[in-house]
Prior knowledge:
With 117 residues, this protein is α+β, with helices and mostly antiparallel strands. It has 4 helices and 6 strands; from the N terminus they run αββαβββααβ.
Amino acid sequence: MLGDPTRKLDPFTGLRHAQVLGLVLPPERYLIDDLIPMAAVGTIAGVPETFKSWLAQSIAVAVAKGDGEVLGRPVVAQGPVGYFWADDSTNAEAERASCMRRRTRRLMQRRCRFTGS
Length: 117
């Protein structure tokens, strides 16, 4: 029974701090060197009007293309990209995507997928 106060709970199973510190881990693999690890999900956050969406679309294009630089760091792997926005209008994001497409030709259309809230 869920709310039974006499029910004995299993102790938390996980690694202790010393065990985590003793882990031998393989080197991190990156999409963008020393900036975005492979298989990462990220959020770009900041105050309004600081070009966060432009940065996100630049990252999307560079990773989809597998070439170029982002924030001075080289793109080291190519991969599929999902671009999700939640805090801007569809019109604003569509306009940004249109501008980015003009800059990158048809790349966004072929290798990136967009979705909004």
